[in-house]
Amino acid sequence: MMKLSDYQALFRASPYPYLVMAPDLTIIGASGAYLRSVQRTEADIVGRYVFDAFPEDPDNPEATDITEVRASLLRALAKGEPDTTAFVRYAVPIETPEGIKFDERYWSTVHTPVLGEDGTPIMVVQNPVDVTELYRFDEQSQVATLQLTPPSSNNAENFNRAQMHEALSRILNNEREHLRSLFNQAPGFVAVLMGPKHVFEMVNEAYYQLVGHRELVGKAVWEALPEVAGQGFEEFLDRVYTTGEPWVTRAMPIAVQRERDGPILQRYIDLVYEPYRDE
User: Fold this and answer.
1) Same structural domain, 175 and 264
2) Could you tell me which residue ranges the PAS domain spans (predicted)?
3) Does 92 map to a domain?
């Protein structure tokens, strides 16, 4: 059976960066990979409030997003579930012969609460992956742009292939959710249809309001909207799918049932069928 000292040795030897904090965000431990990534020692940081150990750059506060990191930690503790911040700008203080200097860094983090037997958090673990090598930051626009370039040799130890894959998954999932949210909030009705049978792949809220909140995704358009069949839309959808040319119309009449078992109502819509090409 493994002893406590064995688990401690395993934790310190982990190739992944971990910072362990008490619920009051006092640092109680760090893996070797984490200490190397921030160029610190356990003696430097253990026992300190995390934002005292890693303060903001007084000369450039925007380079250290304490607000976002604190919010993510508190969400994890409050929910009792992991909380992910796919991308956060957070400069770290580095000791140099000339004094403390702040090294500009970008991170992808997951904060995971560790729960006691009664279900309350007894600690929270931060897993920050340094993604600085994947971004270029424009000082004028204050925008960081993702660049899928390999890490430089001086960061290779702290940014191995597995960590790169994990960080990119976090970032791309975050981007996907952001785009899905924008799609769903679009004021115009939008649906994505796939294949020659025109099967609903995605539908936004405005589209659901147009046709009534019925089951759409995964169904062919004429199966999901039987009352629309025969009104002339089939010909235009098939043509767009076959030719790859868009089709646009204004104030086209459509008879649609907006409520379950309700009357079929006539509406007039502006409609665009825009082909999506899988390149």
Assistant:
1) no
2) 5-71, 177-242
3) yes
Residues 201 and 165 in one domain: no
Q: What is the largest CA-CA distance in the chain?
A: 79
Whether residues 89 and 35 fall in one domain: yes
Same domain, 206 and 180: no
Under DSSP, is residue 250 helix (H, G, I), strand (E, B) or coil?
strand
Structure tokens at 254: 């459509």
Coil, helix or strand for 84?
Answer: strand
Nearest by Cα to 254 from 276, 275, 236, 274: 236
202, 191 contact by CB (below 8 A):
yes
Q: The domain that contains 106 carries what CATH number?
A: 3.30.450.20
Q: The whole model's pTM is what?
A: 0.58
Same-domain pairing of 80 and 129: yes
Look up the domain containing 202 and give its range. Answer: 191-273
> In this structure, are strands 83-89 and 106-115 parallel, antiparallel, or unpaired?
antiparallel
Q: Residue 278: inside a domain, yes or no?
A: no
The model's confidence at residue 157, banded by pLDDT at 50, 70 and 90, is very low
The pLDDT tens digits for 71-123 are 999 999 999 999 988 888 899 998 888 888 999 888 888 999 999 999 999 99
> Could you report the per-residue pLDDT of 209-248, keeping only the tens digit for each?
888 888 999 989 999 999 998 898 999 999 999 999 999 9
Q: Is 91 helix (H, G, I), strand (E, B) or coil?
A: coil
Q: In angstroms, what CA-CA distances link 41 with 94, 167, 196?
A: 12, 24, 61
Q: In the structure encoding, which two tokens stand for residue 182, read together?
A: 């924008």
Kindly state the tokens that stand for 170. 């976090």
